[in-house]
């Protein structure tokens, strides 16, 4: 089954930048960005690593901090944001704060951070000029004070991590919240003035039935949400969930049932006016997550915080995923990076196909073929042959000079995307 797409990370398999400073293979992000255009990105991603509990399925960088480092983190983040500001275009179009659990930061620290964001990027006025400012929230951490602080600071949208409304499935995921707090948290945000809201759900949980999944969808829709992210559970290496699977603590859900859940999601959400615009994301018209569309359309965004990944004109980098490292200031006050990739035409084409095919809008076929031909004619021919083969198998449709995955192609998206990548880069 297709898996969720987090913000794209740099790939260790791609060509790395030379070490510019440090004897341990590290360099500050400012040295990487020095070769790029100023004011290159109108989108910003901030990673807040703190959690009060590590969910067993999560493979994002997050920590249960026992050393009370929220204030030092915000202090360091302010320095980093100021150092990165020359590469951020004002007015900012989109800002996404993810984690971890960003709503775990205290309201007083949020107010401080939001003031600095407004000074640097004019974020307090984003709503008035059509910008999108999203913060991820856990329902257990949303208070009236927090909601008021976020709304006053310019936040226009929240993404609420519900995952399931069945306590037994939350226990399987080691997700610690009361399902009853999800509607309460959403209502607090609405009362504060944040009416753009999204809910995250997971299907394919061991022991989950189709009826239970459809109940989750119905409950989420009944809360008035305009956007749903529906992810099939994946067992990522290094997570507690995968270790439990390997120990035999539970059996994964039947593959056919998971595929049926994937299909049923489209039908059920369609009844409520939410259309699929990306493999795992559904929204009412106009309520799509504009920030995530920047990722999927290969736009430019600047990244701040430990483990955050950024992209500017084909250059990708990822900050080191360790809070202790992040809290150490660098001479230019940007973060130390774990790795970076210089622009590469083959990799850029592969990534454009991989992310673009996830979208219901698909990719511009003529642009992709022209891109491939600019590398060499063999790649163009292989890519054209790939499209023909997938069309014959009912997985791809070509219309209006675009390639779009069909419903069959969406079910087999990982396979379709892998075959596209192999056509472009057989090595």
Description:
- The chain is built from 16 helices and 15 strands.
- Helices cover 39% and strands 17% of the residues.
- It has a 9-stranded mixed β-sheet, sandwiched between helices. It has a 3-stranded antiparallel β-sheet with strand order 10-11-12.
- Helix 3 runs parallel beside helix 4 (144-152).
- The chain has 427 residues and is α/β, with parallel strands linked by helices.
- It folds into 2 domains: 29-296, pyruvate-formate lyase- activating enzyme; 344-427, Arc Repressor Mutant, subunit A (Orthogonal Bundle).
Short note summarizing the structure:
This protein is 39% helix and 17% strand.
| Biggest beta-sheet profile | 9 strands, mixed
How many domains? 2
Mean pLDDT: 91
By secondary-structure content and strand pairing, the structural class works out as alpha/beta
Count, helices: 16
Task: Lay out the secondary structure.
Elements: H1 29-33, E1 43-48, H2 70-84, E2 94-99, H3 107-121, E3 132-137, H4 144-152, E4 157-163, H5 167-173, H6 181-192, E5 196-203, H7 210-222, E6 227-232, H8 240-247, H9 255-271, E7 275-278, E8 281-283, H10 290-296, E9 302-304, E10 309-312, E11 315-319, H11 323-326, E12 337-341, H12 345-356, E13 363-364, H13 365-375, H14 377-392, E14 396-399, E15 402-405, H15 407-411, H16 413-424
Parallel strand pairs: 1-2, 1-9, 2-3, 3-4, 4-5, 5-6
Antiparallel strand pairs: 6-8, 7-8, 10-11, 11-12, 13-15, 14-15
Helix pairs in contact: 2-3, 3-4, 4-6, 7-9, 12-13, 12-16, 13-14, 14-16
């Amino acid at each position: 089954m297709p898996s969720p797409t987090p913000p794209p990370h740099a790939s260790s398999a791609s060509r790395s930048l030379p070490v510019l400073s440090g004897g341990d293979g590290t360099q500050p992000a400012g040295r990487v960005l020095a070769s790029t255009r100023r004011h290159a990105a109108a989108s910003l991603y901030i990673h807040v690593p703190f959690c009060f509990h590590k969910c067993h399925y999560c493979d994002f960088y997050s920590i249960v901090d026992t050393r009370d480092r929220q204030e030092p983190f915000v202090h360091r983040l302010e320095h980093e944001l100021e150092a990165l500001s020359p590469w951020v275009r004002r007015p900012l179009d989109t800002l996404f704060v993810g984690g971890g659990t960003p709503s775990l930061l205290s309201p007083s620290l949020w107010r401080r951070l939001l003031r600095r964001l407004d000074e640097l990027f004019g974020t307090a006025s984003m709503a008035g000029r059509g910008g999108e400012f999203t913060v991820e929230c856990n329902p257990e951490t949303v208070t009236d004070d927090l909601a008021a602080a976020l709304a006053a600071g310019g936040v226009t949208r929240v993404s609420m991590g519900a995952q399931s409304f069945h306590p037994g499935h939350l226990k399987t995921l080691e997700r610690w919240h009361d399902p009853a707090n999800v509607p309460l948290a959403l209502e607090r945000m609405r009362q504060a003035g944040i009416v753009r809201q999204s809910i995250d759900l997971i299907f394919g949980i061991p022991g989950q039935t189709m009826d239970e999944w459809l109940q989750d969808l119905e409950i989420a829709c009944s809360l008035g949400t305009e956007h749903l992210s529906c992810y099939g559970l994946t067992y990522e290496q290094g997570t507690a969930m995968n270790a439990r699977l390997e120990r035999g603590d539970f059996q994964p859900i039947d593959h056919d049932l998971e595929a049926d859940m994937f299909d049923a999601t489209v039908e059920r959400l369609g009844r409520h006016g939410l259309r699929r615009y990306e493999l795992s994301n559904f929204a009412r018209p106009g309520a799509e997550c504009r920030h995530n569309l920047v990722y999927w359309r290969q736009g430019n965004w600047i990244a701040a915080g430990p483990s955050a990944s950024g992209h500017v004109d084909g250059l990708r980098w990822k900050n080191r995923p360790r809070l202790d490292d992040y809290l150490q200031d660098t001479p230019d006050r940007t973060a130390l990076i774990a790795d970076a990739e210089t622009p590469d035409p083959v990799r850029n084409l592969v990534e454009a196909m991989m992310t673009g095919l996830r979208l219901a809008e698909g990719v511009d076929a003529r642009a992709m073929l022209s891109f491939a031909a600019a590398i060499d004619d063999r790649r163009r021919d292989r890519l054209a042959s790939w499209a023909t083969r997938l069309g014959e198998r009912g997985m791809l449709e070509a219309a209006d000079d675009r390639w779009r995955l069909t419903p069959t192609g969406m079910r087999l998206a990982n396979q379709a995307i892998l075959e596209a990548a192999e056509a472009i880069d057989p090595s």
